[in-house]
Amino acid sequence: MFLGVEIGGTKLQLGLGRGDGQLLALWRGAVDAAAGGEGIRRQIVAAVPELLAKAGIDRGQLRGVGVGFGGPTDDATQTVIKSHHIAGWHGFPLAAWLTELLGLPTVICNDADVAGLAEVLFGAGKGLSPVFYITVGTGIGGGLIIGGEIYRGVGKGAAEIGHLRPVYPLSRDSGHGEILEYFAAGWGIARAAQERERSGADTAGLRRAAADGPITGKVVAEAARQGDVVALGILDEAVQALAEGICSVVKLLCPRRVIVGGGVSLIGEELFFRPLRRYVAERGMEAFAGLTEIVPAALGEEVVVHGALALARKKLGG
Amino acid sequence: MFLGVEIGGTKLQLGLGRGDGQLLALWRGAVDAAAGGEGIRRQIVAAVPELLAKAGIDRGQLRGVGVGFGGPTDDATQTVIKSHHIAGWHGFPLAAWLTELLGLPTVICNDADVAGLAEVLFGAGKGLSPVFYITVGTGIGGGLIIGGEIYRGVGKGAAEIGHLRPVYPLSRDSGHGEILEYFAAGWGIARAAQERERSGADTAGLRRAAADGPITGKVVAEAARQGDVVALGILDEAVQALAEGICSVVKLLCPRRVIVGGGVSLIGEELFFRPLRRYVAERGMEAFAGLTEIVPAALGEEVVVHGALALARKKLGG
Hints:
The first copy, chain A, is an alpha/beta fold. Chain A has helices at 36-55, 94-102, 111-122, 180-184, 186-198, 204-210, 217-225, 229-253, 269-283, 303-316, and strands spanning 2-7, 11-17, 25-30, 64-69, 73-74, 79-80, 106-110, 131-136, 140-146, 149-150, 257-261, 293-296. In chain A, the strands form 3 sheets. In chain A, strands 3-2-1-4-7 form a 5-stranded mixed beta sheet. Chain A has a 5-stranded mixed beta sheet with strand order 10-9-8-11-12, sandwiched between helices.
């Protein structure tokens, strides 16, 4: 039995399981960025007894902890390389800290990497290799899984598709700074909507979908579903940019499947997956045409917890 | 003892060896595209006895044949998927054809893939993993070697860096069609020079370097070495485009080394490798900065033959 922990940019999730795609109990909270590491410590210390009670499990049955962290991690040192979200966690020895906190061996990895592992072991890529997993949420992350193992380059991460730069015509006004996230991540879609508004586009449809709230990625998706032309244009640009990124992945890796998950992918078949596949087919390399399937993720919001548990089982299961 | 065969776009090379980085004998010829497969058959049939005599080896000592082919190949069927160079070789059962021709088990793969394998086993990537090999010659090919094995995606090739599309500002006038080769391959560099000429740029320096011949990639390199400003500008654009491709490779794969070989790489340290490393450092992802070394290839013109021999040893050496 293992404890799986997701420490994301905004959410903290803990789950108990055997690393076999089943959860015996789940605890979900929000990361309080202002409270930093100390806040996360308090949340974990409170959540673990709750989880054990819920699952009817004795603490002594836990063999280890797996963590999916929302940022780059170092395999050799088991540290967080860098954190945009949690103050003081640059170079932070996360595995050692959790071992001390919980008295259990701990292994950490990047959240998108373990999510990819989970999709290959239990989800939309079951039994397939190679698989490239993409999560399009607030940001964009990736994971490359070869033969059921996470590919990690020199051991500090890889598969950073969100940092690829899209090509002309998307890049024509943007110089060198903008990356795929700028167009296709949740924040990128919101940014595009705000820019349309500033430049005097008719954003009545977006406003309606937003009710009195801010225009977010979700709002753009909702307005697009209602046929709003500005929203449809923004989404089209996001899907084009993501397609360019996937074309680069196919040229370099020609995986059997590209699995796309995350909040933005929930826009669904008609407005997201269908145009995505069409753009990839139109702009991809002829020699690899049709070799890579693009499919939605299967595991939903607990995907990183499943991956963290699977990682713990692989590395600590003995 | 194995026979290693390189069937490239322009050259045909055969070598005898144990797949250990040593050649006992080498035969080199030009591919006669007009003569097609029949021409290659005649060349191979003539070359093999010559090679055996030169190395003082009995035909019976040969255990198999490895081939590095200049085009996409299919691992499962051991066929050429497509050939731009050799008429009639689309879907051609190259391994079976050679087995019949030479009476020896044969294994085929893409030429850049086996060249990458050779560099990792015997050259600039010895003992390292992962390694991304790039050959910048007339065209641009790539090979990804993980743990001493060629990465082949779904089994029909991968690592096609020459087909990535460069970003703004290089792509600003080019729409969607142009790929890295358009800027950085030998033919792309020659194209750029011809375009400069047509648009009325001062190409006196290029003309001088060309003597009375055509302006090729080599000519541009020579003129650049002599300080010609137009040639330097063309090379700079080629190196920028290649740097963008390498940045994408690093973001997705973060390999320990990128090894660059091929004729264009022979331009050398000052005009090629130094600016290449600088552009990659300037435009790469901060989290992966400094993790990937960019180094020149070590094995020279026989690299594909070495790789074909190593492939034969791996697959047929038993």
